[in-house]
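The protein record quoted in full:

***
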Amino acid sequence: MNKKQALIYGIILIVLFFFVPKAIKYLRFNKSVGIVTQISTGTFHGLRDSTSFEYPNILFITEKKQEVYYRKDNEVLFVMPEVGDKITVIYNPQDPKDAYLSRIGSFWFALPDLLLFGILIFLLIGVVNIVFVKSKKKKKAES
């Protein structure tokens, strides 16, 4: 196996590690159409500056006719909805507060997942490079 193949196999394994469990979870979740009731503002305090961000508060009704107020401030939103907008929500039928906006950035690419995914790819590249550098040195020493 060469370096390129090792990287490709490693990336495939990492992608499977992230997306197969999410796909299974997605298939078990129910869908509901909710209404954006409010846009809240939060603040992230970094090392030097504070950054403001906005996130929607959404009301949706489950299949069991429960009203659930949903708010997640760690989702990646490419387009911010406005108050009164209807938006599809996916939720766990056993725990409706475990909900996500039915958008690609909300469920599939939550910020903590993206950070962990990037770290794992970085580590994979480092490990593959170390292994192949050691094997090259070993071959040179043998010849």
